[in-house]
Amino acid sequence: MEEHNPLIPPVYDIAWSVVAAASVVLIVITIASLGRRASQLSPLLALAWAALILTAPVLGPVAWLAIGRRTAPRTQLPQ
Fold first, then answer.
1. Cβ neighbours of residue 74 closer than 8 Å, sequence gap 6 or more
2. CA dihedral in degrees (70, 62, 64, 60; nearest 10)?
3. Does residue 38 carry a pLDDT above 60?
4. What is the distance between the alpha carbons of residues 36 and 38, in angstroms, rounded to a whole number?
5. Average pLDDT, rounded, for the chain
6. CA–CA separation, 42 vs 44, rounded Å?
């Protein structure tokens, strides 16, 4: 039989599972976004962003989505 900690309600397990799943989804979305822009970045900068995204699970993806995508040079369409 499974024992429960009387000091921590079982709903916290569910809440932390949702937070962990959301973090993984955020990392996957961010790595995909970085992959699309990687050709526009230097290899060292792309590697640095990937390392930040993977080592700082919330701060890294938020930083890329807020700052990193803007720093990548945009290609302009011929007019």
1. 40
2. 160
3. yes
4. 6
5. 84
6. 5
